[in-house]
Amino acid sequence: MKNRFRLTSTNYERETEEQKIKPQKIFYLSVEGNITEKEYFNGISKYREKLGIDFKVNVIVLNRGRKDTNSAPKDILELLEEYLRLRELGSDEIIKEIPEDFLRSYGENFIKKYIRDPESCSKKERNRFITDLKKIGYDINYRKFLKTYENEDDEYGILIDRDIQTHSESNMLECIQYCSRKNYKCYIANPCFEFWLLLHLVDVRTRYQGQLDDILLNRKISRQHTFVSKAVSDIAHHCKGDIKFEINYLPNVDLAVERAKLFEVEEERLVDNLGCNLWKLIDELRKTI
Predict the structure, then answer these.
(1) pLDDT tens, 86-127?
(2) pLDDT of residue 233
(3) Cα 116 from Cα 11, distance rounded (Å)
């Protein structure tokens, strides 16, 4: 049975320290990859003013546990909508999410006390409470962090790979249509997010002339790599994790945006054609406020 709670993070304290000014608008993203995408968008957030993005605008990737490998389109939507349900709760109403057995075990008064001021509880009480909640995947501190950054004009979206090996065309189209009905942004990378990274590194049309079909098919070519991830690794000298955003990608975001516009850009056509529409998010971030 899949865990009911998926929102979790180990670095929200660092994020709150970096967030000097509360943004007036945040783009919340649920993404497929659990490492590379997060590093990339953390870089966008960190250097947003250098990228021409107002400091009052930010992008936040919703975190899930590293062992949470559920990455089908429906799983990415599920994580986003778990967050949206959280937004509907008042700050003191997080208690409504906590299972009844925890309410009985710890008592409503203790839980409300912890939510309002954890330091008012003893260290022993706090540690036991957090340990028990984590057993069911409920990260109360990350939820409290997310509740801190809510604005009326925030926007919500998903980022998914086409990945013809695992995501069917019908599932992709259903996901796109669902996002349209719900007014969620839908960003697609075909064949994968690494294609977006590759657009930062080289002029893909020139460098891989005659190999665009190989990029689109993106076959597995080793235990570690597909065709596209190997291309990125060969040029930028990184695998998943430690992508060195400031060196490899920050200077070339504008190039990636312009290069991406030469490929397919519309959601439904991206299901079958090479391209990535993440440039739309960059443009949206830049024009906001």
Answers:
(1) 999 987 788 888 888 888 889 889 988 998 899 999 999 999
(2) 94
(3) 20
Q: Would you state the pLDDT for residue 20?
A: 57
Strand-pairing partners, residue 58, are: 26
Mean pLDDT (whole number) for 9-14: 61
Average pLDDT across the chain, whole number: 91
Count, residues in the chain: 289
Burial class (CB in 10 A: 0-12, 13-18, 19+), 125: middle
Nearest C-alpha neighbor of 62 from the set 43, 45, 82: 82
CA dihedral 265, 36, 160, 158 (to 10 degrees): -90
Dump the DSSP string for 49-83: TTTT--TTEEEEEPPB-TT----SHHHHHHHHHHH
Kindly state the tokens that stand for 285.
């971030």
Q: Are the CB atoms for 191 and 274 separated by under 8 Å?
A: yes
C-alpha to C-alpha distances, 24 to 13, 19, 21, 153, 163, nearest whole angstrom: 20, 12, 9, 8, 35
Rounded distance between C-alpha atoms, residue 144 and residue 91, angstroms: 8
Task: DSSP letter for 264, please.
Answer: B
Whole-number pLDDT of residue 266: 95
- Note the helical H segments in 88-122: 100-106, 108-116
| 259, 199 contact by CB (below 8 A) | yes
SS3 content of the chain, % helix, strand, coil (to 5): 55, 10, 35
Based on its alpha-carbon atoms, the radius of gyration of the chain, rounded to whole angstroms, reads 20
Residues 6+ apart with CB under 8 A from 15: 145
- Tokens matching residue 186: 């839908």
Is the Cβ–Cβ distance between 102 and 111 less than 8 Å? Answer: yes
Please count the other Cβ atoms lying within 10 Å of the Cβ belonging to residue 179.
21
pLDDT of residue 3: 53
pLDDT at 90: 84
176-184 average pLDDT score: 97
